[in-house]
Write a structure and sequence with these properties.
Elements: H1 4-18, H2 21-28, H3 50-63, H4 66-80, H5 82-90, H6 102-128, H7 133-146, H8 156-183, H9 187-217, H10 219-232, H11 252-261, H12 267-280, H13 291-311
Helix pairs in contact: 4-6, 4-7, 4-8, 4-11, 5-6, 6-9, 8-9, 8-10, 8-12, 9-10, 10-13, 12-13
Length: about 325
């Protein structure tokens, strides 16, 4: 629980960072008029070559590795669950939903950039001819309706640890799909996932900078929040995935196994992200912490090695071809 004093300090810290948000938005977000849009990558229905372009998309989609295509579909569903992510960010302490400036402006602008990802991939999957779109849409509606608890509450410190980690993970996932698609000649999908990955990298850098600024102002409390989030474990937005006839979250294990098998997102990636955050936030060199925060720092520095020992014992099940999303 966060005490009244810590809550007051967090409010002051958020107000301090908010003074720089116009500058940070210019650095980490793109102007709408010049930003890419889904139609920049998708076939133009008015083009005489439209049907031939669709035929090419479908031919390349049929050739994609089953696990890789499954992960692409699951990633798209999690991108489409954007209303959930915007709603919890709007509930973070220090964000005034009624304002058109500061933190609420950041959340809306971030959401607007993220919204293009689901739009682009959804249309691509529809055109691919390899997806049972009704099953896809059922999973999407369930993921939004079921909600998502990232175990941060309204605490901005914990929320920014989560977004720093999760946006980095999303960057890795889309970047790997792009790389693997390019190797098999699917240059269109590679470009799509590549531009999405670039967005996610910028967003991750923004949330990492927010966190770094908090460390500069309130290091001990930020360290305790970081420790708490890593003890709880960072849960991915796909945690509650399900298909028709399933309970909430029943599909998560099979989906994460598919991602591990095709090396799109692995247990080692989780460890590597943690190691990167420790380095970028200069946790090892940090001084002036109170006793509890110093113990938290020691825990965090030892955590990558501890997780590596656990990861070495994990086995991933063999091929699974039973996802309802994939059309027969």
């Amino acid at each position: 629980m966060i005490g009244e004093k810590q809550t007051h300090v967090r409010q002051e810290v958020m107000e301090t960072i908010e003074k720089s948000l116009d500058e940070l938005m210019e650095k980490y977000l793109r102007p709408i008029e010049s930003n890419w849009q889904p139609s920049d990558f998708l076939p133009d229905p008015t083009n005489p070559e439209f049907k031939n372009q669709i035929d090419e998309i479908q031919a390349l989609a049929r050739e994609m590795d089953y696990d890789l295509f499954t992960v692409l579909v699951g990633d798209t569903i999690t991108e489409e669950a954007l209303p959930t992510y915007e709603s919890w960010l709007m509930g973070v302490q220090g964000v005034n939903q009624q304002s058109q400036r500061g933190w609420s402006r950041w959340v809306r602008a971030w959401t607007a950039e993220e919204n293009r990802h689901g739009d682009l991939l959804n249309k691509y999957l529809y055109l691919s001819g390899r997806v049972d779109m009704r099953e896809f849409e059922i999973s999407t509606q369930y993921l939004i309706a079921d909600g998502f608890d990232i175990q941060t509450g309204a605490d901005p410190y914990r929320n920014f640890v989560y977004t720093s980690f999760q946006e980095t993970a999303t960057n890795i996932s889309h970047r790997r799909v792009a790389s693997l698609s390019k190797k098999t000649g699917n240059t269109l999908l590679a470009k799509m996932c590549g531009v999405i990955a670039a967005d996610e990298a910028r967003h991750a850098n923004a949330y990492k900078e927010f966190t770094r600024r908090i460390f500069e102002i309130d290091a001990s409390e930020m360290m305790l929040a970081f420790e708490d989030m890593m003890k709880k474990k960072i849960v991915m937005p796909a945690l509650h995935l399900r298909e028709s006839g399933m309970g909430m979250g029943e599909l998560w294990t099979r989906f994460s196994d598919a991602a591990q098998r095709c090396s799109v997102y692995t247990t080692q990636d989780y460890i590597d992200i943690l190691s990167t955050l420790l380095k970028e936030w200069k946790i090892e060199e940090m001084t002036g912490l109170n006793e509890k925060a110093e113990k938290a720092r020691e825990y965090l520095l030892k955590l990558p090695m501890r997780l590596t020992r656990i990861a070495d014992r994990i086995t991933v099940p063999e091929f699974d071809k039973g996802f309802k999303w994939i059309a027969s």
